[in-house]
Structure formats: structure tokens, C-alpha cells
Design goal:
With about 100 residues, the protein is of the alpha+beta class. It has one domain. It is about 35% helix and about 25% strand. The chain has helices spanning about 1-5, 35-40, 45-55, 60-70; strands at about 20-25, 25, 30-35, 75-80, 90-95. A hairpin with a 2-residue loop joins strand 1 (about 20-25) and strand 2. The termini are close together. The structure holds zinc ion. The site of zinc ion has 6 residues, from loops.
Length: about 100
């Protein structure tokens, strides 16, 4: 899934990919896979990911931070940037 996304240039089919992040009513620009330290350089993306993971059921703060700290090892964070407002967006891919 992830590899298919990374090798593809944004196009019509990207709209149908649930992992292609959208911001400001438009598809965000794909930047790449990042580790926790790289993600920490984009606090707005990090906070957004924390919220998403809590919504996903990671209610234990310690476990959540543990998961985030190990991004880039098992799970990966994928970074996007909104082409309209430059906000960074991310999701975690655990596969
Ligand atoms: Zn935006």
C-alpha cells in the first residue's frame, strides 16, 4: 500500500486513495516517510497525529508516546504538506 503510494505521482486516482491526505479542500503534497525526530520538527503534524491516534483508540498517553517515539522502526509516519496553507499533515502506517 505504502509503496504503491510513494511510487505514484499525484493524479486523478489519488482522490480515491484513503491514505492521501486532504486539507483546505485539496489533496496535500506528499513529502515522504519520516521518523519521530523529523516529525517533531513539525509540531502541528505531530499534534494532529496524536489526536488521530487517540480517536483510533490509543487512549493511554504513555503507550501513545511510546508508539510515536518508535516511528521509523516498525510503524512509519508519512508526511504531507497542504499546498494551500503549508500546514504539515501526517498519518502513521503500521503495516
Ligand atoms: Zn491547508
Amino acid at each position: 500500500m505504502l509503496h504503491r503510494v510513494t511510487r505514484r505521482t499525484p493524479g486523478f486516482h489519488a482522490w480515491q486513495d484513503p491514505h492521501w491526505l486532504v486539507h483546505c479542500h485539496d489533496v496535500a503534497a506528499f513529502i515522504g516517510e519520516i521518523s519521530y525526530s523529523e516529525l517533531a520538527a513539525h509540531p502541528e503534524a505531530l499534534n494532529q497525529l496524536r489526536q488521530d491516534l487517540r480517536i483510533d483508540g490509543r487512549h493511554d498517553a504513555a503507550q501513545l508516546e511510546q508508539f510515536l517515539a518508535h516511528l521509523g522502526e516498525g510503524a512509519t509516519a508519512v508526511l504531507f504538506r497542504c499546498t494551500d496553507c503549508d500546514t504539515h499533515l501526517t498519518y502513521a502506517d503500521a503495516s
